């Protein structure tokens, strides 16, 4: 059997229904030069049964250890020259994998990686909160693709494992740090190490599209940003030069501007600013949890 050029790695946890759609989209790609590894991170739903409906894809089960460890585990079974990481709630366009492959073949150097585009799925009603969440210019905390407009390369801050491919050769030397067990930043931290130690070049290909099929509301912001606060402190301990944790003066400023009276006012007059300040409030709470 021919060795695939690309290995797709999908960590998953209790999202069997949307995982099924993700796998169906992968089955219908314009290229067949790939394999898929599903890493079940200790799911308690019918994830195993869904995965078994796609017998050509590899299925791995592990105890719940988090996304970074799940990806590291899958790398041991990956045959592809290039590894593509996507999320279990990401539905790739039919040419998404082909676009990753074409870009890598144009840039075969081991330090070249490819960032694809993530968009909200058309089936989902995109609320004002969800629009803010992916707007980097307005302080959104999930993706910031608007900051890449007219750019061909991105820096390590865009090392989004929702849709990114990288040479396996690099990942054999550098893995996701297992200290990150909470949500967020284990991917950005790896991107930074690869940039610093391997001169990573992250090419942006907006034609490699996956659709994020996940409705998110304001209630989710608390857990998301507290988790990111926890991860930020771990990140800061490893790379203090990046100052991912605010200085005492800046932290005090953030505490003041995210206090309840200001939040109440901005909620009435400027929702984008309100969500930004609310995210900082929860982020600071996460920092205190470590």
Concise account of the structure shown:
The chain is of the alpha/beta class and 290 residues long.
Q: Any overview of this molecule?
A:
This protein has 290 residues and is an alpha/beta fold. It folds into two domains: 207 residues, Spore Coat Polysaccharide Biosynthesis Protein SpsA, Chain A (Alpha-Beta Complex); 70 residues, no CATH class. It contains eleven helices and nine strands. Strands 1, 2, 3, 4, 5, 6, 7, 8 and 9 form a nine-stranded mixed sheet that branches. Strand 2, helix 2 and strand 3 form a beta-alpha-beta unit. The chain starts with 5 loop residues before the first strand and ends with a helix. The mean pLDDT is 94.
For the structure shown, list the relevant keywords.
290 residues; alpha/beta; Spore Coat Polysaccharide Biosynthesis Protein SpsA, Chain A; 2 domains; nine-stranded mixed sheet; 11 helices; globular
Overall mean pLDDT score?
94
Q: So what's the overall shape?
A: globular
Q: Within the CATH hierarchy, at the fold level, what is the topology of the largest domain?
A: Spore Coat Polysaccharide Biosynthesis Protein SpsA, Chain A
Strand content: 15-25%
Q: State the oligomer.
A: single chain
Report the order of strands and helices: EHEHEHEEHEHEEHHEHHHH
SSE order and pairing:
Layout: E1 6-12, H1 16-27, E2 34-41, H2 47-52, E3 58-62, H3 67-75, E4 82-86, E5 90-92, H4 96-106, E6 112-120, H5 128-133, E7 153-154, E8 163-167, H6 168-171, H7 186-198, E9 201-212, H8 221-238, H9 248-257, H10 260-269, H11 271-289
Parallel strand pairs: 1-2, 1-4, 2-3, 6-9
Antiparallel strand pairs: 4-8, 5-9, 6-8, 7-9
Helix pairs in contact: 8-11, 9-11, 10-11
């Amino acid at each position: 059997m021919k060795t695939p050029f690309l290995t797709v790695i999908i960590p998953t946890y209790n999202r069997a229904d949307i995982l099924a759609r993700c796998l169906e989209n992968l089955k219908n790609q314009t290229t067949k030069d790939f394999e898929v590894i599903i890493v079940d991170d200790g799911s308690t739903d019918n994830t195993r049964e869904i995965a078994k409906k796609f017998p050509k894809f590899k299925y791995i089960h592990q105890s719940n250890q988090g996304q970074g460890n799940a990806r590291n585990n899958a790398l041991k079974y990956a045959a592809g020259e290039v590894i593509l990481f996507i999320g279990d709630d990401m539905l790739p366009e039919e040419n998404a994998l082909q676009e990753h492959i074409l870009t890598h073949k144009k840039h075969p150097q081991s330090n070249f990686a490819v960032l694809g585009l993530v968009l909200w799925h058309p089936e989902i009603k995109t609320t004002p909160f969800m629009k803010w969440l992916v707007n980097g210019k307005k302080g959104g905390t999930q993706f910031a693709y608007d900051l890449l407009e007219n750019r061909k390369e991105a820096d390590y801050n865009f090392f989004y494992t929702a849709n990114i491919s990288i040479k396996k050769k690099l990942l054999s030397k550098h893995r996701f740090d297992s200290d990150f067990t909470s949500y967020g930043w284990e991917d950005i931290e790896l991107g930074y190490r690869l940039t610093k130690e391997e001169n990573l070049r992250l090419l942006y290909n907006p034609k490699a599209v996956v659709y994020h099929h996940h409705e998110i509301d304001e209630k989710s912001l608390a857990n998301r940003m507290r988790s990111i606060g926890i991860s930020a402190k771990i990140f800061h301990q490893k790379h203090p030069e990046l100052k991912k944790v605010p200085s005492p003066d800046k932290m005090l400023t953030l505490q003041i501007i995210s206090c309840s009276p200001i939040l109440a006012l901005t909620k009435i007059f400027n929702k984008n600013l309100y969500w930004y300040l609310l995210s900082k409030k929860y982020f600071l709470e996460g920092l205190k949890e470590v």
